[in-house]
Write a structure and sequence with these properties.
This is M20/M25/M40 family metallo-hydrolase. The protein is of the alpha/beta class. It has 16 helices and 19 strands. The protein folds into 2 domains: 45-80 and 335-579, Zn peptidases (Aminopeptidase, 3-Layer(aba) Sandwich), CATH 3.40.630.10; 120-322, Glucose Oxidase, domain 1, CATH 3.50.30.
Length: 581
């Protein structure tokens, strides 16, 4: 995505994905930690994984498709962390790394074990948020009107007669002279807030970054800031355009058990109750309180907006099964021949959303595009490097719990097998479009660093170009694992398939992207399709390889460009490393 506003810097320093408080309650069930693949025999491979395929040492569409078909098969049950699907997935990746001749990448081990806390909300079918207003009570049903959960590791949480306040966007951004909490004591209160940030509608391009989402617009930030302020609960109002995804995506993310890092790894405050309201539910709630939601939402776009208390109180009881478990990053490497202590890192998340027995028909979130494609690309590139002797070490990290808030990469960055000041760059691959060949590759965060210049050089040789994010309002920069590397100062490249298609141009590419978002993203319909044309995605996989190859066989260190908020972080990290020499 294009350059993020410098106004985001303080928010980035505070940024943390939502997590549960493991010290608040003892585990309610035995650990569901998957056995470590390095010490336990793997489960029998499903039939699809046993089908014979003769892999080549090169990057080919046939090999890519073979990996993808296995990773996204029904037998892998949606690759939910902490399940049999995890064991099948991580063992498959390890076996492929071994076949290729890679070495274990985590100090002699194939896995990096990531502690996790799972919160499974019970009684969803009958769960309701009760809102008392003017002597009456309005009930909001789970799944249709709202979704909800606790971000603390507590089996039982109750919200009782909590005053409801409309707090605009729920943003406190002193650099932008914006504070929705000004003069507001939110302790014990339930906040209703808007999704995205005040600049998203483009009415005032000087607000934040205009249409381009800042971190203040991310749903994770809303919960973090409200917890810091002492709120008891937060409900974000879903609207498809500013959220950039439909209610179905929100629902699917809250009906299955939610995973987080334990407090020992992420001690930031957490909300007792967090959730979303549908737009229609918000309109109904506000109307019962004598207010017009849409009118207040427009007022919240204007600088100086003050929070509006509603004549309403929220009540809900949450009962959850709390399970402490382990999940695994899988890490392989090709050791550098001349500078083995300097590492180029490729990342792709292996996890997805598992399955939902409440769904009618197909219940598995296969995640073929998201992110079977990234893992297939990781394996293909690893196989290519395994045949070579790069000067620098090349690391291949298949990380866990991206879908739960980038938790696997967050843990990797906090416990890096190679020091961050010796990590040359991260090249992240997530949800690679399979739409046919394009004239471009879209760079998320374009303008941030010199890695995009390296990519541009690679593409130029193939008659292609880089392009900026076509949908900056969707906040893609904050939604994948490269963001954790960037926050730590490591130059990170996040580039996906472009939209300027060789056949059909930009209109066809945008139509394909919109179709995926509407009809397959985070839905059981994201499945492998035998009719897919892999020509375009393989061009992109080759480009990822070539960028890494240039970095792995040079003495150059990519940098953040002037104006990037990550530049100072990197300079400080490198300076600290130099002092230790």
């Amino acid at each position: 995505m294009r350059r993020i506003a410098l106004a985001c810097l303080s928010a980035l320093a505070l940024a943390a994905c939502h997590s549960h408080d493991e010290d608040k309650a003892a585990p309610a069930a035995a650990s569901t930690a998957p056995a470590r693949p390095s010490t336990a025999p793997p489960p029998p491979l499903p039939a699809v994984a046993n089908e014979k395929h003769d892999f080549t040492p090169d990057i080919t569409a046939g090999d890519f498709a073979a990996h993808l078909r296995v990773i996204s098969s029904d037998e892998y049950d949606g690759r939910k962390p902490g399940t049999l699907g995890e064991r099948l997935t991580t063992n498959y990746i390890i076996e492929q790394f071994k076949r290729m001749g890679l070495s274990p990448g985590n100090k002699g081990d194939w896995v990096q074990t990531v502690p996790a806390v799972s919160t499974e909300l019970t009684g969803q079918d009958s769960l309701k948020l009760d809102v008392s207003e003017g002597g009456g009570t309005e009930a909001f049903a789970f799944g249709t009107d709202m979704v909800v959960g606790t971000l603390q590791a507590k089996s039982d949480v109750e919200l009782k007669d909590s005053d409801i306040v409309f707090a605009g966007y729920g943003v406190n951004a002193p650099e932008a002279q914006w504070n929705d909490f000004d003069g507001l004591d939110v302790k014990g209160k339930t906040l209703v807030v808007l999704v995205n940030d005040p600049g998203w509608n483009g009415n005032d391009p000087t607000l934040f970054k205009g249409r381009e989402m800042t971190y203040y617009g991310r749903w994770t930030y809303k919960y973090e800031e409200a917890a810091r302020q002492g709120a008891a609960a937060v409900f974000i109002v879903h609207q498809t355009e500013p959220a950039a995804y439909g209610w179905n995506v929100v629902r699917s993310g809250w009906t299955t058990p939610r995973l987080d890092l334990p407090e020992s790894e992420d001690p930031a405050p957490r909300l007792p109750v967090a959730g979303w309201l549908s737009h229609e539910a918000a309109q109904r709630l506000f109307a019962k309180a004598g207010k017009n939601f849409d009118d207040l939402a427009k007022q919240a776009d204007v600088r100086g907006f003050k929070a509006v208390p509603l004549d309403a109180k929220a009540n809900i009881q949450l009962h959850s099964n709390i399970t402490h478990s382990l999940s695994n990053n899988v890490i392989g490497m090709v050791k550098g021949s001349e500078k083995p202590d300097e590492a180029v890192v490729y990342t792709a998340h292996w996890d997805h959303l598992g399955h939902d027995p409440a769904l009618k028909g197909h219940q598995i979130y296969n995640g073929a595009v998201d992110n079977g494609t990234g893992i297939a690309a990781l394996l293909e590139i690893a196989g290519k490097f395994a045949q070579e002797k790069p000067k620098r070490t090349v690391v291949f990290a298949a990380v866990t719990m991206e879908e739960s808030g980038l938790l696997g990469s967050k843990y990797y960055v906090a416990h890096p097998p190679f020091p961050l000041n010796k990590t040359v760059a991260d090249i992240n691959m997530d949800a690679l479009p399979i739409i046919g060949p394009t004239k471009d590759m879209e760079v998320t965060g374009m303008g941030q660093g010199t890695l995009e210049d390296t990519l541009a050089e690679v593409l130029k040789a193939d008659g292609r170009v880089i392009s900026g994010d076509a949908s900056p309002e969707k906040g893609h920069y904050f939604r994948s694992d490269h963001f954790n590397f960037a926050k730590a100062g490591v130059p990170a490249l996040a580039a996906g398939g472009g939209i300027d298609m060789v056949t059909g141009g930009k209109a066809a590419g945008q139509a394909a992207a919109d179709d995926y978002t509407k009809n397959r993203y985070h839905q059981p319909t994201d499945v492998y399709d035998m009719r897919w044309d892999f020509t375009g995605v393989m061009q992109n996989v080759q480009a990822y390889y070539q960028v890494g190859d240039k970095l792995a066989n040079s003495d150059e260190w990519p940098t953040w460009k002037d104006g990037s908020e990550f530049k100072a972080i990197r300079e400080k990290s490198l300076a600290a490393g130099n002092k230790k020499k």
